[in-house]
Amino acid sequence: MDKRAIFLTGVTGTLGKEILKTLLTTTDYKLFLLIRRKNRFSHWDRARKILSAFHLENFLGTRVQVMQGDVTFPELGINPDDFEILRREVHEFYHIAALTALNGSREECFSINLGGTEEALKVAKKLKAAGRLERFFYFSTAFVAGSLQTFCAKEDELPLRPAHANHYEASKYQAETKVRDAMKEGLAATIFRPSIVVGNSETGEVSEFNVIYPFLRLFAHGVLTKLPTRLENSFNIVPIDFVVKAALTIAAQKDSVGKAFHLVTENPPTMKMLLKLHQEEYPDSPPIEVLDPDLFHQQKLEPSEQFVFDMLKPYLGYLNDHLTFDTVNTHKALKGTGISFPVTDYAFLKRLCRYAVEAGYFVSASLNPR
Known about the structure:
The protein contains eleven helices and 13 strands. It is α/β, with parallel strands linked by helices and 370 residues long.
């Protein structure tokens, strides 16, 4: 019997790297990676760099095959010879590639997130019709409903009236719509909706500091002096190891076809915790004044403060939303697997902060060594 094979996009990103590493270390699957050339580095160069970081470069060219392509190109830019290999060998397709920058432009977000998903679906349908493809896994976001509203997002629904805070959310909503349309047409697809993915639950480790980390750095570096939020407001972050373990476990379940799964924390940290962390870890930084978001007007700030809030805008929805998440499907799928929803308490926030300092992303000069 031929070895099972998986085709993956997005392995150069934070989540994709961790999924790649886990598949290589916990399965014997053959993996086909779609990677675009970047500057003077070929797709093979970039794959070698990723695998070397995990000390898994010995798999390159054997269990790991690399194909040049780009999610913004027609049918992912896969050449005919490579497409024929995928047709003959691939059983599962993980579409992870996405632009996750909360301040991404409309053009970039829709080109990569929506356009890339449309092209991935075209490839999946062809591989299903003429090849061996059995499953398609799409990584959406828990925020497809939009973070600018009070709403309980259901796993197997998309709201008719989303309230998106940025182009990232809007583009992922449209992309998930396309995946759901393909499911209705017969594609055996599963949707994963992680919230804001951060570092490892035990160590805080993460390969890239993106999404919410730039906002946290404003805290750590003492740039923020005013913040329009409420102390009881929460922000849903989820450790990357939980997302990877839960997604791969659910992916192996046949009855996960046609469903979506919220990979979130059920007890998100609060702004009060974050401000406490700032005070304790950076005691020499200026205090942060909490302002009523309903009464806040950016135009009344000093020019230097307005500059800071221009950087902060993409994150404000996450500090003041009341979006909650149905997790019925995820609870059922994880029952008996030994995988629990993550604990994202004050100690977890501290681990994230400490790792960012150790990695040089946050300043450490005033870090309290306690």
